[in-house]
Fold this sequence. Notes:
The chain is α/β, with parallel strands linked by helices. It is 40% helix and 20% strand. The chain has twelve helices and twelve strands. Strand 4 (67-70), helix 4 and strand 5 form a beta-alpha-beta unit. The longest helix has 17 residues, at 80-96. The protein starts with a strand and ends with a helix.
Amino acid sequence: MRVFVTGATGFIGTALVPELIHAGHQVLGLTRSDAGAQSLIAAGAEVHHGTLEDPESLRRGAAEADGVIHCAFDHDFSNFVANCDKDRRAIEALGAALVGSNRPLVITSGTGMGSRAHGQPATEDVFNTDHPNPRIASELAGAAVLASGVNLSVVRLPQVHDTVKQGLITPLIAVTREKGISAYLGDGSNRWPAAHISDVARLYRLALEKREPGARYHAVDEEGVSARDIAEALGRGLKIPVVSLSAEEAPAHFGWLAMFIGMDFPASSAWTREVLGWHPTGPGLITDLENMKY
């Protein structure tokens, strides 16, 4: 299959491109820069110049492919709402090129969209359309594209990690360095799901090859790693004290991360593992935090 990949030079994309190529697929990777083009060529992929802000470039890329994986996202959280809306427009543009073709489109969301209630493990059969996270725009757009006749499925991400990046924990590390303490809220029992980047890349490929319209997959290895365990791992790595803060202290300490830091959002991947035969083999989140170079 010739696969158009958005975000091909990003964190997930740089693992996904070789995963696809090693499985026998051809990759057409989106990039906005010459440096990105060179990295794609070095990985054995073809280059498609364009940006998320240019819907026509996305439509052209999708039109040239047998399938599309959309894993690009602008992670500037100071403009989070606007970036979620930009993702909505990107999904609509990609879908417009695939209507009626049965060519698969795999988009990206977060595991929280499958949560019925606070603290209950998110599951693939749930789509909480009232979820307060602005990222809901991605799945709402996906649902509309699916209804228009596109073979669309969703990969929902947890904290995706290796020893260099770890989702929201990467900016948390920056805050921890700045403040000189590694903090969690209350008793730190709230949980974040996680998966290693290699396992996530393999799941995207399996989802693409499955071609199941409307399916939602959870790229979850660990259902929930406690905030306290994460804070303690960072404290050991940075050799700084680990402390508990109150909810009232969170905004001043964590900044924009305060909206996420106390959330308890475990997630299950039982259905995903069963239908795709996906069995994560990468290291756990705490192992990667222990082995990173601080």
